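Journal club side-thread
Mid-discussion, someone asked how the predicted structure for our own chain would compare to the paper's figures. Pasting it here so we can look after the session.
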Amino acid sequence: MPDLSSFPVTQRWPASHTDRLQLYAAPTPNGVKASIMLEETGLPYEPHLIDISNNESKDPAFVSLNPNGRIPAIIDPAGPDGNPIAVWESGAILIYLADKTGQFIPSSPAQRYETLAWVFFQVSAIGPIFGQLGFFLRWGGKDYEDKRPRQRFVDESKRLLGILDRQLEGRDWLVDDYSIADIATLGWVNALVELYAAGDILSLSDYSNIQKWLGRGLARPAVQRGLQIPARSA
């Protein structure tokens, strides 16, 4: 069996199956990128809930795995050279798992880089902007008297949705076939509806291509499973 003892995170969150990929995450829009990908690929893995509401992502054991103190992160006991490897940052995890399995990323160089461009678009724009909008709609920001900061993220979210909607015109997925570009983005668009209740303020119903794309994504059993992994504490 692989020895994962050199990773301090395994002392805080012990692995029951050291031969399986270890996932450290929470069912947030960022976290579910990794769990959906793992469900889609069929790789055997063991999920560990990192309770971000209790600041567990700042635990020294987790920070030893991800110095940024953010979920998700993984340990693959069978890395590229046969030794365990840690991977952090959700975009890097998606690319790593796609390359490891040969799934959900095109083999042609041109389509591969187009797919990566949309992954980085999600990482650099969709995630940060939608996340800030969520702060102003659901958490501390909703109590700010000055609504100008909220409006800034409403306007920018609409701009980003327009980019997605135009890309999806006449196609089922962001880059031809279903890929890590869709996996990266689905959880965040779904959060606008399910977590942030932003449908009305963003006029989401106006983005018909996104609506159809989101429906196709949510119809995938692996997506439905991944959205709930790791399961939150009762």
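Post-session note: The chain has two domains: 9-103, 109-220.
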